[in-house]
Amino acid sequence: MEDAAAGDAGGDALEVAASPLRRVAAEAERVVGQPVRDVRVVVPAGWGPRRRTWMRQVAHRAGLPQPRLVEAPVAVAEYLLTTGVRVPVGAFLVVCDVGAGAEVTVLRRGPAGFEVLATLADAAAGGTAIDHALADALIGPSMAEGQRASVADSVRVAKEALVSHPAVTVPLPDRPPVIANSAMLDEAVRPVAWRVAQLTQETVAAAELTVGDLAGIYCVGGSAQLPHLAAAIAEHTGTAPIVVPEPRLVAARGAADVGAVDTGTVERVEVPVPPVRRAAAIAVPGFASLALIWQCLLTAEEHGVLGVYYSVSVNWGEFTMAAVMALLACLAAGTVLGSLIAARSPTPGTRTEGGRVSVGILAAVSLGAAIAGLYAVVTSQYFGMPVGPYLKWALWPIAPVSVMAVAMAVVAARQWRSPHGGWSALLAAPTGSIVAATLGMGLIQYSLTADRWPDRILWIDIAGRVGGLLLGVAVVMAVVTPLMFRLILAAPLAVICAAIVSRRAAGMLGVIYAIAVATWWATRLWSRILRPAPPSPAAAPTGPVRAHMSPGGGG
């Protein structure tokens, strides 16, 4: 019985949605005098496979042929091209679709058309929220839902009239009419305009771009012409947006032009590499790796050079940390590597945002492992020793981080989730921990290999203990994020690391730091990708709210 009821409910929902489509198709056939053969339906960019499949079922129920679903921002971008707006191949633009709700999308124009790089939406940042606020100002917030529904049309008409008139009369059922003025509209629009502007800023950041990278910001939708919207976006981003003429109809007109632009004659340009805003995240671990392996090679002690029994004493902890730092440097450059590969790749999948990030992460893991292996081979050949132990100390400590990075690459390729702040921020290791660990291990190695003259023994020992303290602090900085917990844990761990500094314990200290780095990566994989924190409540709009809009949102 329950399954049957659920099936009836699903069928009723399809019929309700199909009814207006059926009437539109009948009117189109009456006007053109022939059956409709090409159907294009505009849908929000944030819609997933389930809603898109449902929309196709609605079109089928309405008796229409298989529709072509066109994402609303893509349709808008295509319309801009047909009206003469110059959007070169490789350029980025932002479409702010403000209807019943708001959806902000960053697009990139490729050789084959526009692709969505990032989209954020908020159902409470559009015309519906303004209608509710204006109704509260006119009648009061204590109005019942039934009364609110009965005056909804009157409030909506008044809102649109106030855009060009200072005051209008609003008729109300069962009570005298009231006067709505532009001050009431301004008060209702301000929080919505602020939220749309914030959403625009967050979407640009999620696409790992800056406002300077954009070819323009364009506002469309039934609420795009409301006051304060353009000013709020300009204040947040530093760029004045353009409100497209007749913003209600832009997406529908653009959907008809999708595929009409001849891309065969368009000049093919390279995919632009995103600006390296976090150069320190790449340079610091890279130089740290080179410094550690350089000191490891120069300070290794050879025994029995002229005798039969030849051996080499290598600081395995320093050697391990050099391999770990090399991998961290490569991962920090993952998005840059992905852009460089995508710019020269003929495969369309690598030119999407997810494909570019995924390929970049995999390339970074491969490059980091190759550098660690190169360290092992070069060191073993330099001393004439078997390569096996060197490979073990170079590759095994970086294996956990490599596995987690591959998991991130799979998430990026499937586009299951994009981390807040972008992939570049996620892949950047904590530079403070890297600097402290490198200095700490460098001082430890100095204390173990320096010439112990009687007048310098004390200072050499102090250097080793300070190195242990720094290494302990670096471990805490990698494992713990809150400052208070860092202060609590740093003191005992730093003292322990300083107390055990010795030639035999150096390898263990290096492995401890490698474990700390793996823990840091596991925490980010879990908290940013697998189980991200839920968004803040709507009452405090401090973070992006992801929501889906119904097709053709109102104003």
- Gyration radius, rounded: 31 Å
State which percent range the strand residues make up: 5-15%
Count of beta strands: 11
Helix-and-strand structural type: alpha/beta
Weakly predicted, low-confidence segments: 1-7, 260-274, 534-555
Note the total helix count: 20
State the helical fraction: 55-70%
Tell me the span between the first and last alpha carbons: 40 Å
Query: In oligomeric terms, what are we looking at?
Result: single chain
Sheet having the most strands:
5 strands, mixed
Mean pLDDT: 80
How would you sum up the global shape?
A: elongated
Strand order of the largest sheet: 5-4-3-8-9
Helix-strand layout with pairing:
Layout (H helix, E strand, L loop, with lengths): L1 H31 L7 E4 L5 H13 L6 E4 H11 L9 E7 L3 E9 L2 E10 L4 H13 L5 H6 L1 H11 L4 E6 L2 E7 H25 L7 E7 L8 H9 L4 E2 L6 H8 L21 H21 L1 E3 L7 E3 L2 H17 L1 H10 L9 H31 L4 H8 L3 H16 L8 H5 L3 H19 L7 H23 L3 H17 L6 H25 L25
Parallel strand pairs: 1-2, 3-8, 8-9
Antiparallel strand pairs: 3-4, 4-5, 6-7, 10-11
Helix pairs in contact: 1-2, 3-9, 4-6, 4-7, 7-8, 10-11, 10-17, 11-13, 11-14, 11-17, 11-20, 12-13, 13-14, 13-15, 15-20, 17-18, 18-19, 18-20
Provide an overview of this structure.
By secondary structure, the protein is an alpha/beta fold. Helices cover 57% and strands 11% of the residues. It has 20 helices and eleven strands. It has helices spanning 2-32, 49-61, 72-82, 127-139, 145-150, 152-162, 182-206, 229-237, 250-257, 279-299, 316-332, 334-343, 353-383, 388-395, 399-414, 423-427, 431-449, 457-479, 483-499, 506-530, and strands at 40-43, 68-71, 92-98, 102-110, 113-122, 167-172, 175-181, 214-220, 242-243, 301-303, 311-313. A five-stranded mixed sheet has the order 5-4-3-8-9, sandwiched between helices. A hairpin with a 3-residue loop joins strand 3 (92-98) and strand 4 (102-110). Helix 1 crosses helix 2 (49-61). It is elongated and about 100 Å long.
